[in-house]
């Protein structure tokens, strides 16, 4: 997982100045200077990429150089992340992909979300002996939480519809990296160390990720020949091997009888996955959701992700609230309040169910009705109640009752953005849910299985749109987003972070579009997340810059606990005109990402 070659101390110093710029920003339309010198930023032509990892970004650039398009490059980069970021990106997971097609000027999305086995029920996470939900820790490390992996069918559908290269060719760079290995960096080491106790309990996971019984040391080379062989098998035999062939049988066996080490004290619940669940899995092409904001079109992901609708609803609310570029505190207060209200509706209405009132949630009139609850000088006390997106919006509806608690969602995954020389744009968030997913590696195959089904409401309330059900996909917060100006790409972005994904995407848009920061500054700026929870969780730099002023408006802020104490690790692109593109990765969070262009400017 080699990263950009700037020493950590220097990166921190550079970002400190970006963050300071963030606190001083405020002149309408005047971008900060932060972007120019920030690490993780590249400007150029002919194609651009930003990921969390230099090897993956390098793969994308190679594919683009050889004439591949944004979809080809995104798939190849994702396969490489499966090697270098195996705890977030694996064949054993899923994700959501957004593609702007320059030929038709349409936005497409492809849902590769994991689905529940046919045997899953709303009470599958209830302990029959107590009648209560099983402890979260038990759900996280279990076969029970493993959903049908969607990644390969998603790649297959994407490449057939929008790509130009066969999957086998796009797996080649990843195979090379898996065979030759990559230098272990601090981030890889830390993620392994955080998972070491549970990894040690599974025979194949211990063997692969704890060589010699401990996390690999920083600077050593990590190889994954099993994964290289798996990728090669897929290239040769096709994805049918994974979904219906020998590999499918191995996956089912692993999920139903997790390979625990002898004598492990851990109680690991077996999974419900069957061969027919794998064989019947389909990736789904879905219409994107769209919102108008400041004369721009903001496109995002529809259910089963709540990403697009929640970002869109919050933007509609924000559009009716004060957001002076000269007063970041006022604007951030509006951001926190809009997010609070949109999250109440997300919990109540959005999931993988028929009849999600998307049109109403995203209507400008509903945004006005929700916005009228917000005071510019005092904060609504969370949790606020969901609204009534019922088409009747003449009056300012009062919010009666209270909202429910926020469901658990692990905060770890990865996002990448790619553009190509033809103007195509891909935004792809892929995940196995938790860092390390279920902790269960398929023996001899080099990849971890997801624990995405923990994204269902483990203790569903009556009418909960996110209760588990046979074949259903757990609600996600993943929010790949593209912003068009006059029908052409202007911004593209996405982030990891479980349910903080939505607030990270939203906050970057607020910084860029309302506060007039440039894109690198908007990505680097300190973050806060308000998800209709009793307190707003914020990074230390945010608390330092805005805490006291927001507190006087009634916002209750607390440090984001982590680990690590950072919100999101976003990647983004800005299209500057005349084919010039600025690619932006995080300068510091998760030890920094990697942005490249085919022809640096
Ligand atoms: N499971 C999360 C979701 O779908 C993504 C995982 C993460 O961001 O860590 O929203």
Q: Which tags fit this structure?
A:
disordered N terminus; 601 residues; leukotriene C4 gamma-glutamyl transferase activity; binds glutamic acid; 20 helices
Any chance you could write out the topology, listing elements then pairs?
Blueprint: H1 8-24, H2 34-37, E1 41-51, H3 54-65, H4 70-84, E2 94-101, E3 106-112, E4 126-127, E5 132-133, H5 136-140, H6 151-162, H7 167-180, E6 182-183, H8 186-199, H9 203-209, E7 221-222, H10 225-237, H11 240-243, H12 246-256, H13 275-280, E8 284-286, E9 289-293, E10 296-300, H14 307-318, H15 328-349, H16 358-361, H17 364-371, E11 414-420, E12 425-431, E13 481-485, E14 488-494, H18 500-514, H19 519-524, E15 528-529, E16 536-538, H20 540-551, E17 557-559, E18 571-577, E19 580-585, E20 594-600
Parallel strand pairs: 16-17
Antiparallel strand pairs: 1-11, 1-19, 1-20, 2-3, 2-12, 3-8, 4-5, 6-7, 9-10, 10-13, 11-12, 13-14, 14-18, 15-16, 18-19
Helix pairs in contact: 3-4, 3-7, 4-7, 7-10, 14-15, 14-17, 14-18, 15-18
The chain binds glutamic acid.
InterPro entries: GGT_bact, GGT_lsub, GGT_peptidase, GGT_ssub_C, Ntn_hydrolases_N
Active site: 413 (nucleophile)
Pathway: Sulfur metabolism; glutathione metabolism
